[in-house]
Design goal:
This protein has 275 residues and is of the alpha/beta class. It has 2 domains: 197 residues, Malonyl-Coenzyme A Acyl Carrier Protein, domain 2; 62 residues, Alpha-Beta Plaits (2-Layer Sandwich), CATH 3.30.70.250. The strands form 2 sheets. A 6-stranded mixed β-sheet has the order 8-7-2-1-9-10. Helix 2 packs parallel to helix 3 and helix 3 runs antiparallel to helix 4. The longest helix has 21 residues. The two termini are 29 Å apart.
Length: 275
């Protein structure tokens, strides 16, 4: 099969978007009429946009998701049912918030710095002085570090680049999420995964996930592992992807393409295609 179009799913930024039909019903079955948890709101809106794209005949040849977005991606390939996706994401939100309360921390984006310098600064930071890790390798010029706030501040002062504190609940993709990760592993083991209808590219390492046995461990490993979006884009290039469509409203992943100077892929947001 020729692979031309990738649909990608963001990990945050779409809270409050309206959802309808099957997605709305699945969310209500899970939480009733209560407030929709943050992560579930993002997942639901991504899936709702996926369905709207399909109604317009815009189908994916391959998919990927950034962090939380991997749950929407797993649903998009037919491996994770809608109800299971809603249930798992609601639990993921709860578990990560609990872990953030127990082990508080934060995340800082570093823009324009040398990725190798940043990775080395994190690796060389003394463990006894606090937890800090490289959490997102988003583009050749944008990384995110995650950890305890004092450690984040100390490392930020040692590296070049513009630093932007992220508005997140805790230190995601860091060892501070260990308890949440172990609980999610148990939930994932008890969930049925179907064989994918199309491939998914893992944001953990850029691997192509082509079987149900590939998808489950990818979701299990992602909570503690860094998001390597640079590997996703490289894999898309290897596969022959020419167009990336983001099932999101802010176009974050599409804008990231600007930093990949050698990549010839057209990026468009769902709003552009559905408007």
């Amino acid at each position: 099969m020729e692979i031309r179009r990738a649909i990608v799913f963001p990990g945050q930024g779409m809270v409050g978007g309206e959802v309808s039909g099957d997605v709305r019903d699945a969310v209500r079955r899970q939480i009733g009429d209560g407030d929709v948890p943050y992560q579930l709101s993002v997942f639901a809106r991504s899936v709702d946009l996926l369905y709207a794209l399909r109604e317009r005949g815009i189908e994916a040849d391959v998919v990927a998701g950034h962090s939380l977005g991997e749950y929407a991606a797993a649903h998009a390939i037919g491996s994770l049912s809608l109800d299971d996706g809603v249930r798992l994401v609601a639990e993921r939100d709860r578990l990560m918030n609990e872990a953030s309360s127990t082990n508080p921390g934060g995340m800082v984006a570093v823009i324009g710095g040398d990725p190798m310098e940043i990775a080395n600064a994190v690796e060389d930071f003394p463990e006894e002085d606090g937890v800090v890790v490289a959490a997102n390798f988003n583009t050749p010029r944008q990384m995110v570090i995650s950890g305890e706030k004092a450690a984040l501040k100390a490392v930020s002062e040692r590296i070049k680049g513009r630093k932007v504190g992220l508005d997140v609940a805790g230190a995601f993709h860091s060892p501070l999420m260990l308890e949440a990760s172990l609980a999610m592993e148990y939930l994932l083991e008890g969930t049925e995964f179907s064989e994918p209808e199309i491939p998914m590219v893992s944001a953990v390492d850029g691997a192509v996930l082509a079987t149900a046995d590939d998808v489950r461990p990818a979701l299990r490993n992602q909570m503690l592992s860094p998001v390597r979006w640079v590997e996703v884009i490289a894999r898309f290039g290897d596969l022959g992807v020419k167009e990336i469509v983001e099932a999101g409203e802010r176009g974050t992943l599409v804008r990231m393409l600007r930093d990949f100077k050698s990549v010839e892929m057209k990026g468009r947001g769902a709003a552009e295609l559905l408007g």
